[in-house]
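Section 5.1 Outputs to date
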Amino acid sequence: MPANRTNGHTLAAHYTRCGRINDLDLNKYVPSESENTGMTFTILGRNPKTGELGIGIATYSLAVGATCPRILPGIGVLTSQASTNPAIGEEIMELIEDGLEPTDAFMQSLAKDDHPGFRQVALLMPEGEALVHSGVNIKSFSGHINSVNCIAVGNFLTNDDVLKAMARSFENSASSEETSLAQRLIAALEAGRNAGGQSGSDGTHLPERSACVLVGSPEESFPIDVRIDSSSDAIADLKAALDIYHPMHDFYLQRAENPEGLPPQSEWLSS
């Protein structure tokens, strides 16, 4: 596990190529020693057949889709969570896009932050390479699991079963060609919720008040980006919103490329 000490901070990131999931891997998830805020569970996933990358996040915090996820289709997908500093994720992706090696971009951006012990950052790349940083001040249960095609990562969790359930759900759905990556990510969030989700300092369950799903393809001009900013049941609402948006995504892609000859939105699904 490489370490980098800058400005009095010790930064640690796990840089591993995602290994095949099995019971042994799941029982050896990587925890963080933790004692502070953040209430989030996240699944970052890839479809090696299509080249798609995506992320699903659920949390007690509001408007998670505005601050935590970042994606560069064909390059990487990232979350910056716990005590979120959106600038970390933005800088990592900008540096990678400018040609810096992902490990260097990851560590360099964290090294600039004044409070890395409160951050949880995860990056998944197209070939399955994974980088994860979980600061020592993040509230437990906190940690991550690397699998073949995904990273499950979270903090303020009821137990480590949340991470295991998300990873299993995502990998077990890989054989279904009729299920999109976005749907698989939301199903993994449902599995995490059903395994216990988040809990407060007193051990009581915390509801998911916001959620998002973001999926990008190198072949598409913009990603699927569906968000629930404030809700009493954010994962269910996210699933319902995706069900409405999903059939229209190709329409919006075609409209952006060439709107001539497209039917009205109201007629798209029946045309």
